[in-house]
Design brief:
This protein is α/β, with parallel strands linked by helices. The protein is 33% helix and 20% strand. The protein contains 8 helices and 16 strands. The strands form 4 sheets. Strands 4-3-2-5-6-10-11-16 form an 8-stranded mixed sheet, with helices on one face. It has a 4-stranded antiparallel sheet with strand order 1-13-14-15, with no helix packed on it. Strand 14 and strand 15 form a beta hairpin. Helix 1 packs parallel to helix 8. The two termini are 25 Å apart.
Amino acid sequence: MRFRLLYDPGVEGLPMKVACFMSGTGTNVVKIIEHQLSYESRGERCPYEVVLIFTDVKDERVDRTGKKRCYAKDIAERFHLPYICNDIRDFYRSRGRRTIRDLSLRPEFDRMTLEMIGDYDIDVIALGGYMSIVSRPLLDAFPGRIINVHPADLSVMEGGRRKYVGLHAVRDAILAGERFLYSTTHIVRERVDEGEILMRSKPMEVRLPEGVTLEDLRRRENRSLLERVVRENQRKLKERGDWVIFPKTLEMIAQGRYGIDDKGNVYVDGVLMPHGYRL
């Protein structure tokens, strides 16, 4: 089966230009940038270069506790990178909508975003905690070159569909009795968390508080305990999973190691990898 590279570094081997999209704290974005800088600290050139920080949440927005909702501008300033904001709530309000749930407006929003980032000659978009669903204008402009990281093993199937998708993947995996959690990088497609798998992290053992069982967590009256357990396991998974495989995936794409064929099969170094590269 013939395949095409997700990115071809060419004979010049110029760094692949990455735009990081984010909506919150941006810890994944920071790790992507730090991985690039680790090359430079050794006197080497990283295969990729972050050239832009983009956000859909403006710097002034705060959550219910008064904390900033998004740190994109802070990260851009810290690493001396260009910063662009296209606040999605302002966009929807300007169209007379009170919420951002109406996805019929999302293509217009993404077309505006494309115009705003057009001068940066971007090769790949990395979604580092970007909470807006990406629509056709961006998907068409960067076919197979929008990458996301998800806190679950996306190769696990149930009823012909991926089992652990969506915002509550860690919670769902814990309640299902999974002994280990994984992070997965994947190509972004129209259906959320359904794109081709690129890399899966090493397993991280699920940890429950001493004396707490799965049956305890499944009881409705223990909802706050469940939320605490999920939050702690997800934090550890981000450190041991997301922060490791997201920069590594971008590095390997930039090196021309990933390919994909017309049927959506993923190849690494020319070898078919049905469930992506496993660390």
